[in-house]
Amino acid sequence: MRRRVDEMDIVVCVKVVPKVEQVRFDPITKTVDRASAENELNDADKNAVEAALQLKDRHGGKVTVLSMGPPFFEPFLKLCVAMGADDAILLSDKAFAGADTYATSYVLAQAIKRLKPDIVLCGESTSDSGTSQVPPQIAEWLGYHNISYVSQISIEDRAVVAKRTVRGGYEVVKVPLPVVVSVELGSNTPRFPDFKRKRWAEREFKITVWTANDLELDLNLTGKTGSRTDVIELQSIAPPQRLRKFLEGSEEEKAKTIVKILKELKT
Q1: Alpha helices (H) along 85-227
Q2: What is the pLDDT of residues 167-200, one digit of tens each?
């Protein structure tokens, strides 16, 4: 079948994250203890998948979901396929373990280089780190253009036209392909998977797994060895007090209590 001129090859980078309220940290390794928490697909990454599927609906093409992590990520990638993605690739190798954003973006970029997409979509950040560093780092490794905090995407003349959030409003930019785009959290409503496709994805679809041997990697740039940051200290911070009953006694006593609290806030 002949490919349409405006068809796009799109890669969506997704991550499986632990539920924030269940996260625990290992004080010895200074890493997230995933065994203590349920996992879910990162919310902003769902928005990125939906944005990719909308582009596919309008222009045709192929959507490939890409993730780096252990084998238990596979059911979450199949969920993306159930939503409408055409393929899913998991980068999984012990050599990738303990990676910070630098080492993570390097491995993802080498995989993307092999896929040669027109557009790379990522969620703006992940709930387990919130740095927003990986998408622009991927762009830097690949030499692609980068647009961040994007809420709307369209394609015109083999270029991405994106509405992106800036302080005090928004701006619209036009960037030639190839490009890495960070999709803003909540910018769309991710579609519900089709039941039949969901059953097919769960029972029949096979995830492609690439190890370090499948990619042209410098292992000195992967995993903990290739990471440029180290966690040197962990501190537990108590959540803010959301509700406290402090107005008791007579009206005069309540007034004095309020005055005292306001003075404390000023200092």
Answers
A1: 101-115, 134-142, 195-203, 223-226
A2: 999 999 999 999 999 999 999 999 999 899 999 9
**In a domain? residue 213:** yes
- Residue 249 belongs to some domain of the structure: no
3-state percent helix, strand, coil for the chain, nearest multiple of 5? 35, 25, 35
Whether 234 maps to a domain, the answer reads no
225 vs 221: CA distance, rounded Å: 7
Give the number of residues written for the chain: 267
* pLDDT tens by residue, 95-153: 999 899 999 999 999 999 999 999 999 999 888 777 889 999 999 999 999 999 999 99
Is residue 23 within 8 Å of 37, Cβ to Cβ? Answer: yes
CATH number at residue 18: 3.40.50.620
Tell me the residue range of the domain where 20 lies.
Answer: 8-226
| 241 falls within a domain | no
